[in-house]
Amino acid sequence: MPLFDPTRTSRYQAGSNPFIDEFLNTDYEAGLNSIFPQAGGFNPLGNFLRQSLGRYTGAYKGVLPDEPNLGFTDFLRRQKPGEEFANLSPGQRGERPGMFAPRVRWIG
User: What is the pTM of this model?
Assistant: First the structure.
């Protein structure tokens, strides 16, 4: 199973319960976990999302005066953190493709 599946990005349908919507838009970590269930696990995508939460929260608070009706979950969907993670290099994503490869030796 891939770490990020763009077809499965949310456990909750937005707008089906106004109380849950309000909670997810005020508790930023819960909003992140509702959009990206992988954020709760100890995997490279989850680590990236948890580390980026402060950056996304700051950017959201900066946009809020211009768009007061924008919810945090809607803001996160616009930012597309999954695509940002996919665009990182393998080393930045926490992958180690050369871990089991033998050391390369040059004969000159």
Answer: 0.70
